[in-house]
Structure formats: C-alpha cells, structure tokens
Specification:
Layout (H helix, E strand, L loop, with lengths): L17 H4 L5 H8 L7 E2 L11 H12 L12 H15 L8 E4 L1 H13 L5 E6 L3 H9 L3 E6 L1 E2 L5 E2 L2 H7 L4 E7 L11 H14 L2 E5 L25 E6 L12 E4 L5 H11 L5 H13 L1 H23 L4 E2 L8 E6 L5 H12 L1 E2 L1 E2 L11 E4 L4 H16 L2
Parallel strand pairs: 1-13, 3-4, 3-7, 7-8, 8-9
Antiparallel strand pairs: 2-10, 5-6, 9-10, 11-12, 12-15, 14-15
Helix pairs in contact: 2-12, 3-10, 4-10, 5-6, 11-13
The structure holds pyridoxal-5'-phosphate.
Pyridoxal-5'-phosphate binds next to α5.
Length: 398
C-alpha cells in the first residue's frame, strides 16, 4: 500500500518504466487509504487471519537466528526445507515429488512473479480465470504480457462455475500460460479433478503452461484437501504449482512460499531467485521446516476457525434479504452482492469512512468481480461480529 505522505514529484511518472508507472493502485488500497491509520476500523479487506504464527514455528526460526544462520544461502532453499516440502507433498497427495522439483520463494507472490518472468515475453498473453486476486494481473503486466480473462459464471445458488470451452476459445497463438487459482480468491471456487484433467490435456496438446495457484489448498471445508494439479501432472508436464506458508500456518509476514516445477527448470529458477532476492533468509526457512513437520494440528485449527468464521458470516448476511451470498466452501472469503449496490468501490469507501469496517470492492478482482464485495472471515468470532454489526447497519440504511 502506498504511503499518503510520500513526495509527489511532478512529472516523475513519465521518467519511469511504463510497466510500473502505468500500474494503477488497486481498488482495495484505494479503499484502505481513505481511512489510513484509523485504529477503529475493523479490517476485513486483506487476506490474513488475526492470529500470530504458532510458537513452535517462531521458535524454530529464532533458533536458526541464534545459531548464526545469517549468511547468503541456497538460491532455491536450504536442503532441509526442500526435503521437508518434498515429504509434505508426497504425504498430502500420495505422489512422489522429489526435492529437485521444488524451489523456495519469497512468498506466494514471488512464486507468481518468478513464474511470469520465466514464461512470458512482452506481447505474450496469459489467460486468467477471474474474478482473481489483482496482484496476478499486475505481475503479468510488469513483464509486459497481456492478461486475458475468462470469467467464472455465477450460479443461481450464488456459487461459481467455469465454462472450460470459453477458456479454450480465448487461447490463441500468443498464449503462453493459463493461470488458475483454485481454491480461488475471492470466490472460493474450487476446480474439480475432472476439470483439471481436461485443462491439462488441452495444455499438453497446445504446448501451453498451466500456472496453478494452490495457496488455499488446505483451506477447504468440504474435503480434506483441494484437488491439485500435482496429482495429475507428470514430472515433465508444463505445470507450475505455486504455494505458500502464509495462509495455512498464519505466516503472511514471513514471505515464505514455494514452487513445484519440472526438475529441468531448477537452474532457471535459481537464476531468477538470484536476480530478484538472492534467496530467503536461512533462519526463516527453519520456521518453514517446523510448520511442515509439526504443523498439521495447527492447520486443523485454522480450518476449524475459518469454517466457523465462514458460517458466522454466511448466517448473518444471508439473513438480510438484499444480500446474495453462497455458503463458503473454500479459501477464507465471502464474496457477496447487495441489491441496489452497483458501485462497490464507492460503497466500500463509505463503509470504511462512515461505518468503520474495511471490505474489498469487487472491481479489484477483474471481470466477474463487479457488483460484489469481498470479506475475509479468517478471524475470531468477536471481531467478525463487530464487523458484521457495522455492515448490517450500512445495508439496512440503504
Ligand atoms: C490467490 C493468492 N495467491 C497468492 C497469494 C500470495 O500469498 P503470499 O505472498 O502471502 O504467500 C495470495 C495472498 O493473498 C493469494 O490470495
């Protein structure tokens, strides 16, 4: 988020790279800036829980720091973390996923950007299933690729579904990748294994990459884990699976994620990591090892917390006749519409300023997002209740 006190140098934008100067502030930041620093606002706009990383993870990182792990480290992650990720993936999906297919990144965000840097040249396009977290569009634009969208369809029950044929139809000769975030932010839509299989067959036939963002794979309320492209893709298939410690282990501030890719791409990712960040601090990676090896009970707690939060939000909002909302099935967002509210950016600004509750406007999430509002429910009941009281008051006053 930009700092409102920053210097505004006249004409400076014209002297910057067009790919960054031309990127707009996201509408989520626009809303947040209207009440910048106001402690009374109940924040439900960003995608994180209100609990601190569990102590056993913090302790493991602290031990690494105390032991002096302060030097430059492996570009693709310390061997212990890559081995732990390999074991975790094998355990979760019952597949063999050797460590040479895994590279550690500075959060899921950097996994996205590295993947764009690896695959996309200026003028290429990437087909993105939307509504979608806006940073994915921004990463594509930063490497001067064209984001193209295929919007999910809203079903009568308020849920979402993908018309795969629509996706196939917008792929053309300049399409280098298809970006699928499942379970999805902001919708919670989850791609079925059959749909994944059909998409993978298409990608293989057409020589196109799949960028599968699976950062919410563990946060699903209808089954133990969401279907993953890792269960279908062979070791040399054109598939990159992006993941992160942020959501399941409450580690958003750690900036720790990983990529699973064909083994032959390890050297390319090592180069890209070196140029971008030169690696994730070694002592932080120790926290990642602890999360993977001892963190299953915590993930269960997180899932239970989010399931309860989603249910609380669903019960309160679905009781309002103006609200159209589906029971959340995955990820940790409610994405709902309010009858009579078409400009959700203006409505979210009003909610922030007058009602002191922070929500994200649907415009931020690309085609299919307009007219909806995103609420993150990864919080405790008391905070959610305070936020919901304010949202209800605003809706009743319409
Ligand atoms: C869909 C999606 N992908 C990736 C990320 C990146 O997560 P992080 O960079 O915190 O690991 C987020 C964060 O909100 C997300 O919603």
């Amino acid at each position: 988020m930009s700092d409102p006190t920053r210097f505004q140098l006249p004409g400076v934008a014209a002297s910057l790279s067009g790919s960054i100067a031309g990127l707009p502030e996201t509408p989520i930041s626009e809303v947040a800036m209207t009440v910048f620093g106001d402690p009374d606002v109940v924040p439900m706009w960003f995608g994180e829980s209100d609990i601190v990383t569990p102590a056993f993870v913090r302790d493991a990182a602290a031990r690494g720091l105390q032991a002096g792990e302060t030097f430059y480290t492996w570009q693709r992650g310390i061997p212990e973390l890559r081995a732990a990720l390999s074991a975790y993936t094998s355990r979760l999906y019952g597949i063999d996923c050797p460590a040479d297919r895994i590279s550690v990144t500075t959060g899921g965000m950097q996994a996205i950007l590295l993947s764009c840097q690896l695959l996309l040249d200026p003028g290429d396009n990437v087909v993105i299933v939307s509504p979608i977290w806006p940073n994915i569009t921004s990463a594509a634009k930063l490497v001067r690729a064209e984001p193209r969208y295929v919007a999910l369809d809203r079903r009568a029950d308020g849920g979402w579904s993908l018309d795969l044929q629509k996706l196939f139809d917008i792929v053309d000769g300049r399409t280098r990748a298809i970006f699928v975030n499942s379970p999805g932010n902001p919708t919670g839509w989850t791609m079925s294994q059959d749909e994944q299989r059909a998409l993978l067959d298409f990608a293989r036939r057409r020589g196109i990459w799949i960028m599968a963002d699976e950062v919410y794979a563990r946060l699903i309320y209808t089954r133990p884990v969401a279907p993953s492209f890792l269960e279908l893709a062979g070791p040399d298939d054109p598939v990159l699976v992006l993941n992160s410690f942020s959501k399941p282990w409450a580690m958003t501030g750690w900036r720790l994620g990983w990529l699973t890719h064909p083994a032959g791409l390890g050297d390319q990712f090592a180069k890209l990591v070196q140029i971008n960040t030169s690696g994730v601090p070694g002592f932080l990676q120790r926290g990642g090892v602890a999360a993977l090896e001892q963190g299953d009970a915590f993930v269960d707690e997180m899932v239970a917390r989010c399931r309860a939060g989603g249910e609380q939000v669903f019960q309160r909002l679905s009781a309002l006749p103006q609200v159209r909302i589906a029971r959340p099935e995955a990820a940790f967002y409610a994405f709902f519409s309010v009858e009579g509210v078409t400009d959700t950016l203006a409505f979210c600004k009003k909610l922030a300023k007058e009602y002191k509750v922070g929500l994200a406007p649907g415009e931020a999430f690309g085609p299919g997002g307009q007219g909806n509002i995103r609420l993150c429910f990864a919080s405790g009941a008391e905070r959610l209740s305070r936020g919901l009281d304010r949202i209800e008051a605003a809706i009743k006053a319409l």
